[in-house]
Design goal:
The chain has 440 residues and is an alpha/beta fold. It has two domains: 129 residues, 2-Layer Sandwich (Enolase-like, domain 1); 285 residues, Enolase-like C-terminal domain (TIM Barrel, Alpha-Beta Barrel). The chain has 15 helices and 16 strands. Strands 4-5-7-8-9-10-11-12 form an eight-stranded parallel beta barrel, surrounded by four helices. A three-stranded antiparallel β-sheet has the order 1-2-3. Helix 13 links the parallel strand 11 and strand 12. Helix 4 runs antiparallel to helix 5 and helix 7 packs across helix 8. The longest helix is centred in the N-terminal third of the chain and has 22 residues. The protein is globular. It binds magnesium ion. Magnesium ion (MG) binds next to loops.
Length: 440
């Protein structure tokens, strides 16, 4: 089947031709999806690094429509690129692009090896590209296709960081001056060097570095726990009661330590405390929840609804951070969001610069539709990235809106993208002071 599909691709299946149809008929049961008028005739992977690495999937239909998906998995980008090239693109050829749900099930159930970051990012890329195509075919933005917007603009937050509290307060002031109404605050810890989330050199925070191996950071949880409650209390006193403040512990704490921190931060009245403890064991959040009313957020590394099943069912969290690219696209994130709504859990999609503008565009359409929306993370991409990915979305006064372009509203300038070849980067790792590997 694969050989046949690749052959069809190589010769270029003609619009509406029997050749495209025969490729589809050859694609096992998926071929039983009844004929619409259109077919996928090309699926290609593009890797570009305009400031950092992004992987994009381009799907082209016989009718000449082009859909773009994001397949970026930070630090493991080429794994998804090859998964798509070798295992997904060939079997997309000849399929009906309108049958998004069937394609999602085909790639999820059909692979046998379910879930996982690489598989789900690849499925997410296909899903975003197909929603983009469906929107372009209908002349509608994605938010219209999935039910229509319930809000025109969405609250977003960005990051302010400082090596010490004085620098953090300056960064918070500068961020407020840009219009943000919600800010994630991260501070250096006395006695520790570079740590997660704190920018160096006053530049924007970018953890992925060049070099033979990852940068090794040293971590001391006790030092962090001694410092952070006081530092965040100073921030709250500085900004007053209204500004939404967020903080990310980046999976560093045990459940007991997480409970201590969340309890100590209650007077700061955080919008959320994020990733307090790893969630491989979802039950770990029970202990945290029993001891604090600080709102909890987790899920940026989740791939499927199964990763947050217990967290939502037992109402152990307040916000689910899963993204369209990380969890199989709009199709699957809608399921997670609807399930989350049962437990009054709101969304707060990951939106750091490790995800391409394609994800941001699609996320904003999702955000304007989803009834149980909480907040959207937003870090500005570099000007080079914005030039490679022209987009309809925009930011103003702490709010974002997706624009009304058909599809998800993000395009790719392929000529410009080709000027930024893949640039090998490594995310840091963390060790405790005695050398023990810890969670970065
Ligand atoms: Mg996080």
């Amino acid at each position: 089947m694969t050989d046949r599909a690749v052959t069809d691709r190589a010769v270029g299946a003609r619009p509406g031709s029997d050749r495209a149809g025969s490729a589809r008929a050859g694609s096992a049961r998926a071929g039983s999806a009844r004929a619409g008028s259109d077919r996928i005739v090309a699926a290609e992977v593009l890797v570009t690094s305009p400031g950092r690495n992004f992987v994009a999937l381009k799907i082209v239909t016989a009718d000449g429509l082009v859909g773009w998906g994001d397949a970026t998995l930070n630090g493991r980008e080429l794994a998804v690129a090859e998964y798509l090239r070798e295992h997904v693109c060939p079997i997309l050829l000849g399929r009906d692009p309108a049958r998004i749900e069937d394609t999602w099930q085909y790639l999820y159930r059909g692979v046998y090896w379910r879930r996982g970051a690489v598989t789900m990012a690849a499925i997410g890329a296909v899903d975003l590209a197909l929603w983009d195509i469906k929107g372009k075919a209908a002349g509608m933005p994605v938010s219209q296709l999935i039910g229509g917007a319930v809000r025109d603009r969405v609250l977003c937050y960005t990051h302010a960081t400082g090596a010490d509290t004085a620098a953090l307060l300056d960064a918070v002031d500068a961020t407020r001056a840009r219009g943000f109404q919600a800010i994630r605050v991260q501070t250096g810890v006395p006695g520790l060097g570079a740590i997660y989330g704190v920018a160096r050199d006053g530049a924007g925070y970018e953890p992925a570095g060049r070099g033979v191996g990852p940068v090794e950071e040293t971590w001391d949880t006790d030092a962090y726990l001694r410092h952070v409650p006081g530092a965040l209390a100073e921030v709250r006193a500085h900004v007053g009661p209204e500004l939404a403040l967020l903080h990310d512990a980046h999976h560093r704490l045990t459940p007991n330590q997480a409970a201590r921190l969340a309890k100590a931060l209650e007077p700061v009245e955080l919008f959320w405390l994020e990733d307090v403890t790893p969630a491989e064991n979802q039950e770990a959040f029970r202990l945290v929840r029993q001891h604090t009313v600080t709102p909890l957020a987790v899920g940026e590394i989740f791939n499927t609804i199964w990763d947050c099943k217990d967290l939502i069912q037992e109402q152990l969290i307040d916000f689910i951070r899963t993204t369209v690219v990380g969890a199989g696209g709009v199709t699957h994130l809608r399921r997670i969001a609807d399930f989350a709504a049962v437990g009054q859990v709101r969304t707060g999609c990951h939106g750091a610069t490790d995800l391409s503008p394609v994800t941001m565009g699609a996320a904003l359409h999702f955000d304007t539709w989803v009834p149980n929306f909480g907040i959207q993370e937003y870090m500005r991409h570099t000007p080079e990235t914005d030039a490679v990915f022209p987009h309809a979305y925009s930011f103003s006064q702490g709010l974002m809106q997706p624009g009304d372009a058909p599809g998800h509203g993000v395009d790719i300038d392929e000529t410009l993208a080709a000027k930024y070849p893949y640039d090998p980067r490594q995310l840091p790792v963390a060790r405790l002071e005695d050398g023990t590997m810890w969670n970065w």
